[in-house]
Design a protein that fits this description.
With 381 residues, the chain is of the alpha/beta class. It is 44% helix and 17% strand.
Amino acid sequence: MPATAAATAAEISRINTFFPLMPRLGNRWASRRPFEDLTVAVNAHLTSLTAVLLGELALGGGRWVVTAANTATTDLGVVNWLREQGVAVYTGGDLRNRHLAALDHEPVLIADVGFELCSTLLSQRRDQVADLLAAVEITRTGVTRFRQLDRLPFGVVNLNDGRLKPSIENRHVGEGLWDSVREITGMHLAGRTVAVVGYGPVGQGIAKYARAAGSVVAVVDKDPVQRLVAHYDGFATPTLGEAVAQAEILVTATGVSGAIKLDTLRGARSGLVLVNAGHGGDEIDVAGLPEVSERAVDFGRLCTRYRLPGGAWLSVLGQGHPLNIVTNAGSPEPVLLHFATMGLTLEWLVSNRVTPGEHALPPSIEDEVATLALGAVQGPR
């Protein structure tokens, strides 16, 4: 077995040892074989946590096809390990369209992030729609995208707006994110001025973890209701321009492309560190920075410094991709909770046909995940 795949196997074993939620589900799926004779496609960030999920799901039978949601968050050790388990993996590294390659397998169930695989199905493989039983969408970005369509010709279960994901995973992204910032920059957060752009569940968690570490935190949000919530949570609510001019670290958590434009960055305080925690890699206009910069200093793929005309320096971490995913950082537990929810939802969809359109997550699934998770962290009671 290649060394990178071996390292992935060791990481999977470590995660499952200290939080044995997924192996318990794997035993269930191995016994029931709910996916027998079915093809399931999963579009996901290919990290060791995704490998934990897919290793257990594959025990439930069927054929599993995986596409990389983002090349910057793709761990090649995970790719190698998954392929050794018999999972078809498409990363786009062979210059093939990874979504079309996955759809060549004719999946009947899809688990998606960002509604990316489903969008390719709708735009380029419309003839396959009739054979799709349903899809599952995990992210706010994906939910926003499918709600913009005139009509959804298949059922999509919205995992993002369930009870567990916003309450646990989204709120605790900040733990791993700040660990990554510390590791890459060596910065101590106490006393630093931090601006969080976007005050949804992810932004709220990031802001609260920063404050717990001793940072002086401000929140930026276009929505006046969210700004009021931030105010009553004890955060200053400056304009975006004011935040960029004052902050030492700025984190985006909007899920919106182009949230931070070049014109805004021209007013930045010198030394500003830019971090993204949103789904995509384009919330900050990182692609435009080389074009307007007088100089760039590359500290590897995780940190690049740019000197703007006038002398201000900006540092971009993780090339503007979601940093906690790029670095595979943070506690696995919150992520695996929503992965367990995803797996049980796919199992539920095998025996419960849904009509076209958006569907709420059945409460019974989250109740079961919560019960299993409590057992994993607390042991028998």
